[in-house]
Design a protein that fits this description.
The complex is a heterodimer of chains A (about 290) and B (about 170).
Chain A (H helix, E strand, L loop, with lengths): L2 H20 L8 E3 L4 E4 L5 E8 L2 E8 L3 E4 L8 E8 L4 E9 L5 E7 L2 E3 L6 E8 L11 E8 L4 E7 L4 E6 L6 E9 L2 E10 L3 E2 L3 E6 L2 E6 L3 E2 L10 E8 L2 E8 L6 E5 L5 E6 L2 E7 L5
Parallel strand pairs in A: 1-7, 9-15
Antiparallel strand pairs in A: 2-5, 3-4, 3-6, 6-7, 8-10, 10-13, 11-12, 11-14, 14-15, 16-19, 17-18, 18-22, 20-21, 20-23, 23-24
Chain B lengths: L1 H26 L3 E4 L4 E2 L2 E2 L2 H24 L11 H17 L1 E17 L6 E15 L2 E18 L4 E9 L3
Parallel strand pairs in B: 1-4
Antiparallel strand pairs in B: 2-3, 4-5, 5-6, 6-7
The chains are: A mainly beta (about 290), B alpha+beta (about 170).
């Protein structure tokens, strides 16, 4: 055998050995859904170990090359990015595997605030995170329907597609005070929250006065907001009498929609009324009969 | 003259040591880039909030790395809570049972804020991250691999810092 023939033969043998070494002993999938069973066929001889490792999970299987290696339903359940390693005494094959979330199974619904004044544009916000049965965030776009319904009024709804597992919406509060049901829906999944819509600041605060001996009886008109909702009892109304540089003040909680008090008569005095930041009318004591 | 030269030499040596120390200290710090964003979703992210969130998120990677290397779930307490903490703690437990440890070294983060909730109670970001992962089985290195992927994280504010509540790799785009 000539030296040249020997060299060719060695090259062929080396190439064959290299090809054999490079032949993959297992075909890894690129992606699976969380909870799916996984069965991998291996080729070759001898013992090896298969690892599936990531921050979400760690799995290890000893196996005989040539056999199948199987992971049962729900065994690989955390969505995420994993490295998959098949390691033997003299070889190691590595791949990457993405485990994706399954279909939506639970909603995390955050509705804010739980209480707000009526007629507030974009006053109510709803944020929904969509999860699968394994508490994985479902990042595939999913339609979320938000519905806001009052006891006596139309239901307002808006559909928003999730982005990176999240959908959010802003909605106006209703003109009428009362409890509203705020609902988020994905297919058959629903989550419900109650939003209390309370009257806004009073509109047209007005008091009336009449004299009773040496005192003045003061009483407000029923307090309502600009949409006609009754301001809740307990709201503080402040009456103030100013006379020759001195002031006397009386705070009165609203009772059955009105605030009442009496103050001493100072001829030439001025009485005013206010609640919160809302100013009412003023009355000169000399005009009171 | 000799004294001046000697002082110069000492100064140069000190500067050299300082520079080396800086490089050494910075060597295991990942490169962090934050995509510019003024408003994400219903609320604007203030510069101070942005820097706190990024700082705490990058710190969470270190916390996760330490926990998975030491197989000690209590090391997650500082940076994680809720589902993220539970899942990572389960992985620590899996690893311990199997005799495995993993070393994660984050190299690059490219962070984009995706959502800041109206009440400021949660902030979501997407991170195009590069990291090295080393797998050890009973102390023996099995593989070391450089990984590029994207992570989604939801952080919520606690008393003193932002903590990661959801931490999940995203499938390729």
């Amino acid at each position: 055998m000539t030296a040249r023939l020997k060299a060719v033969l060695v090259s062929v043998l080396l190439a064959a050995a290299l090809a054999a070494a490079q032949t993959s002993r297992v075909e890894f999938p690129r992606s699976i859904a969380a909870g799916d069973a996984l069965s991998l066929s291996t080729t070759g001889n001898g013992k090896a170990t298969l690892y599936i490792v990531g921050p979400g999970q760690a799995l290890r299987r000893d196996l005989q090359l040539g056999d199948k290696v199987a992971f049962g339903v729900d065994e690989i359940h955390n969505a995420g990015h994993y490295i998959v390693v098949l390691a033997g005494p003299s070889f190691s094959e590595t791949a990457e595997l993405d485990v994706t979330a399954r279909q939506p199974s639970a909603l995390s619904f955050l509705a804010k605030p739980s209480r707000l004044p009526v007629d507030r544009p974009d006053g109510i916000s709803g944020v929904v995170y969509v999860f699968d049965p394994f508490q994985n965030l479902v990042v595939q776009p999913t339609n979320v329907s938000f519905e806001l319904s009052e006891s006596a009024g139309p239901t307002r709804s808006r559909t928003v597609s999730t982005r990176d597992g999240l959908a959010w919406v802003r909605m106006d509060s209703a003109p009428k005070a009362g409890a509203a049901q705020f609902l988020a829906r994905v297919g058959d999944l629903t989550e419900k929250r109650i939003v209390q819509q309370v009257p806004a600041e009073p509109c047209n605060l007005r008091m009336n006065a009449h004299r009773s001996g040496n005192r003045i009886e003061l009483e407000t008109d029923p307090l309502r907001d600009c949409r006609g909702n009754a301001v809740p009892d307990g709201t503080i109304v402040t009456f103030k009498e100013t006379y020759q540089g001195t002031e006397s003040t009386v705070d009165v909680p609203l009772k059955r929609g009105v605030a009442k008090t009496n103050m001493p008569v100072y001829e030439g005095g001025l009485i005013s009324v206010a609640t919160g930041v809302v100013m009412g009318n003023e009355i000169q004591t000399k005009d009171v009969r | 003259m000799r004294r001046i030269l000697s002082n110069c030499g000492q100064t140069l040596m000190l500067l050299g040591l300082f520079w080396t120390a800086c490089i050494a200290l910075g060597a295991d710090r990942p490169a962090v880039r934050v995509e510019p964003s003024d408003s994400v979703g219903p609320r604007a992210v203030e510069a101070q909030t942005r820097s706190s969130v990024v700082r705490d998120y990058v710190s969470a990677w270190k916390g996760m790395s330490r926990a998975l290397e030491k197989n000690n779930a209590s090391l997650l307490d500082v940076d994680f809570l809720g589902t993220a903490k539970d899942k990572l703690a389960d992985t620590v437990q899996d690893q311990r049972k199997l005799g495995l440890t993993t070393r994660y070294e984050d190299r690059k983060h490219n962070i984009a804020f995706a959502f800041y909730s109206p009440e400021g109670m949660s902030i979501q970001l997407v991170d195009s991250v590069e990291y090295d992962v080393q797998l050890l089985d009973h102390g023996q290195v099995i593989v070391k691999r450089h990984v590029r992927t994207r992570y989604l994280a939801v952080l919520t504010p606690t008393e003193v810092r932002w903590k990661v509540r959801i931490f999940q790799a995203l499938p390729p785009q």
